């Protein structure tokens, strides 16, 4: 059944009349059209929907995306997001600037990192309350991670529980006000002639930008895809991010990248797509079943994250024993399931 293009009379009057609309692929949580207007201009029409396994949260996701796009509009020359051209709140409809995506380049990470830093640097303490605070790991996540070690017969170093408790405290988003995208994954970053611009801000929040810079190391924890960036491109991208942030804010990036990566490691919900988050203890499922998401399985994603945290924390004053535990868990997973694949070093195609 064809889905009617949801453009109100007010939007038609402000933007022009559509002459052609093409329904694009999108998540079950939204409907997206590429629309040609009389006169030849193109726009994107996006309607937020309930469903997709997330419950009746469409109003909240619509409000988040609109608020985030308005904050992102502070960036100019170049922009970091499409311009918001019109809204229809009762129908949860946004009309957005159409972006010509050039496709990902082989050396995509520096441009991605620069635009991510520019996005994060747009907001500050005065923006508190415009978006929800980022939701970090909780005590239950730490308990689940330690229980996973027990289920796999991996001894827990005596200081690891205290390190995890302190980690959760350090990841409190309260002192931080960076504009976080919420899902900065391949497909949500478009390479345009003017640079990388991000789309789909339904999960935007305010917090520490390092939790999204960590995506490059930890393997994109909220994404269907996963990858393991190699050392030299990764180091370059992280240096670009830090230099861009420093140039825009006049200060160094706050926080610790090892903390951000460890935070993603202990979150079982970062092993499943959004529709299944908050339902069960997903780390507790790992010893009994290897469930897939996208092209890779939970165990494959977890082995990668364990290795990342083990490497980052080898000489870390506050996460040393968590690093030891991570290394031992990675070894145990590969001993039990030697066919687990390493994540690829190349960006996935979508």
Provide a quick synopsis of the model.
The protein has 350 residues and is of the alpha+beta class. It is 37% helix and 14% strand.
Give a structural overview.
The chain has twelve helices and eleven strands. The protein has 350 residues and is α+β, with helices and mostly antiparallel strands. The strands form four sheets. It has a five-stranded antiparallel β-sheet with strand order 1-2-3-5-4. Strands 6-9 form a two-stranded antiparallel sheet. Helix 5 (160-170) crosses helix 12 and helix 9 (257-265) runs antiparallel to helix 11 (298-312). It is globular. The mean pLDDT is 94.
Please provide the ordered H/E string of secondary-structure elements. Answer: HEEEHEEHHHEEEEHHHHHEEHH
Intertermini distance: 26 Å
Shape: globular
Oligomer: single chain
Q: Reading side by side through the largest sheet, how are the strands ordered?
A: 1-2-3-5-4
User: Could you give a short account of the major beta sheet?
Assistant: 5 strands, antiparallel
Helix content: 25-40%
Mean pLDDT: 94
Number of helices: 12
Strand content: 5-15%
**Low-confidence sequence ranges:** none
Structural Rg: 21 Å
What would you call the structural class? Answer: alpha+beta
Q: How many beta-strand segments?
A: 11
């Amino acid at each position: 059944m064809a889905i009617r293009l949801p453009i109100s009379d007010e939007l038609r009057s402000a933007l022009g009349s559509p002459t052609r609309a093409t329904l694009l692929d999108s998540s079950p949580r939204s409907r997206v059209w590429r629309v040609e207007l009389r006169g030849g201009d193109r726009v994107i029409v996006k309607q937020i929907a309930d469903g997709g396994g997330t419950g009746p949260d469409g109003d909240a996701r619509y409000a988040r995306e609109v608020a985030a796009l308005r904050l992102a509009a502070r960036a100019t020359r170049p922009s970091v997001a499409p311009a918001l051209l019109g809204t229809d709140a009762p129908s949860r409809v946004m009309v957005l600037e159409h972006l010509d995506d050039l496709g990902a380049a082989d050396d995509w990470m520096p441009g991605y990192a620069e635009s991510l830093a520019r996005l994060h640097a747009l907001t500050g303490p005065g923006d508190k309350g415009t978006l929800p605070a980022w939701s970090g790991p909780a005590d239950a996540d730490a308990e689940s991670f330690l229980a996973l070690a027990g289920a796999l017969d991996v001894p827990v170093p005596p200081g690891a529980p205290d390190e995890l408790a302190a980690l959760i405290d350090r990841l409190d988003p309260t002192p931080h006000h960076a504009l976080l995208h919420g899902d900065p994954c391949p497909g949500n970053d478009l390479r345009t002639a003017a640079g990388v611009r991000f789309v789909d801000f339904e999960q935007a929040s305010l917090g520490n930008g390092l939790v999204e810079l960590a995506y490059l190391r930890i393997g994109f924890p909220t994404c269907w895809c996963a990858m393991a960036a190699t050392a030299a491109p990764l180091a370059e991208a992280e240096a670009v991010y830090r230099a861009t942030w420093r140039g825009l804010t006049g200060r160094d990036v706050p926080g610790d990248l090892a903390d951000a990566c460890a935070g993603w490691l202990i979150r079982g919900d970062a092993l499943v797509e959004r529709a299944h988050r908050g339902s069960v203890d997903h780390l507790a499922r790992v010893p009994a079943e290897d469930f897939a998401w996208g092209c890779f399985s939970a165990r494959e994603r977890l082995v990668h994250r364990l290795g990342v945290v083990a490497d980052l924390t080898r000489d870390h004053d506050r996460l040393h024993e968590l690093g030891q535990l991570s290394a031992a868990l990675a070894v145990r997973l590969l001993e039990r399931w030697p066919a687990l694949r390493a994540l690829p070093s190349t960006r996935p195609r979508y």
